[in-house]
């Protein structure tokens, strides 16, 4: 009886840990995506700026590589 209960508790704990791991992986993926979006925005900004005024660009207001 007690052994059965302990096994059930352990299985529930394992399920919770699996869920938490999934959440962490999802959060990491969201952070990756946000970082990529920021890089894409910066690249777009750089292209627009290069077309407009090169002086500001040279001064390093926006660092474009």
Q: Can you characterise this structure?
A:
The model has no long low-confidence stretch (mean pLDDT 84). The protein has 2 helices and no strands. The radius of gyration is 25 Å and the shape is rod-shaped. The N and C termini lie far apart (67 Å). The protein has helices at residues 2-51, 54-58. It has one domain (2-58). By secondary structure, it is mostly helical.
Major beta-sheet overview:
none
- Average pLDDT reading: 84
Using the CA coordinates, give the radius of gyration: 25 Å
State the helicity in percent bands: over 70%
Shape: rod-shaped
What class do helices, strands and sheet pairing give? mainly alpha
Distance, first to last CA: 67 Å
Count of helical segments?
2
- Number of E strands: 0
Output the helix-strand order.
Answer: HH
- Low-pLDDT runs of 5+ residues are none
Number of domains: 1
Beta-strand content: under 5%
Outline of this structure?
Residues 41-65 are annotated as: Disordered. The chain has 65 residues and is mostly helical. It is 85% helix and 0% strand.
Which key phrases capture this entry?
65 residues, rod-shaped, 2 helices, single chain, mainly alpha, 85% helix, coiled coil
What topology emerges from the helices and strands here?
Blueprint (H helix, E strand, L loop, with lengths): L1 H50 L2 H5 L7
